[in-house]
Amino acid sequence: MVNLKKSFLAGIFSIITISILTVLTYKTEYGIFLLASFGSSMVLLYGYPESPFAQPKNVFFGHLITALVGLFFLNFVTLPIYIIIPLAVGFGVGLMIFLNVTHPPAGGNPIIVIIGSVSFDYLLSPVITGSIIIIVFAIIINRFILKKSYPS
């Protein structure tokens, strides 16, 4: 019964958080707030908020670092895409672990950045602004609604 409640609440709060990002992206002129890997972040933020990988610094810097790595490889490494994608993912994962800001969903960001051929503006929106929004929602929901000690 505990798993049913936990899974239901994680699903509901994921819907709410991603809905806000979707409305901001598609119903306002403020920019893009959605990043595909934010869907995976929801699993940690609402399903396992006690995990070190779900802590705000990990969410924010994990997404930022891996997006930066993707942009670096996209713009400065002149190798075929089938070589730069795995290199960028590997470097991104390695940097997150080295800097102690591992957030597993962010491991996919270099792929998103490279396949999408995004510009450096992508760092501000959706990476930074979206990360801040999902962190704020996770703090409010976990701390004040679910009464969990988040961040740990």
What this model shows, in words?
The protein has 152 residues and is mainly alpha-helical. The protein has one domain (2-145). The chain is built from six helices and no strands. The chain has helices spanning 2-26, 36-47, 56-76, 81-98, 109-116, 124-145. Helix 3 runs parallel beside helix 5. The protein starts with a helix and ends in a 7-residue tail after the last helix. The mean pLDDT is 97.
Topology record:
Elements: H1 2-26, H2 36-47, H3 56-76, H4 81-98, H5 109-116, H6 124-145
Helix pairs in contact: 1-2, 1-6, 2-6, 3-4, 3-5, 3-6, 4-5
Briefly say what this structure is.
This protein is an all-alpha fold and 152 residues long. It has helices at 2-26, 36-47, 56-76, 81-98, 109-116, 124-145.
Global outline: globular
Largest sheet entry = none
**Residues in β-strands, percent:** under 5%
Rg computed from alpha carbons, rounded to a whole number of angstroms: 16 Å
Q: Tally the helices: what do you get?
A: 6
Number of strands: 0
The helix/strand order is HHHHHH
Gap from first CA to last CA? 25 Å
Low confidence ranges: none
Instruction: Report the structural category.
Output: mainly alpha
What portion of residues is helical?
55-70%
What's the pLDDT, averaged over the residues?
A: 97
Q: How many structural domains in the coordinates? A: 1
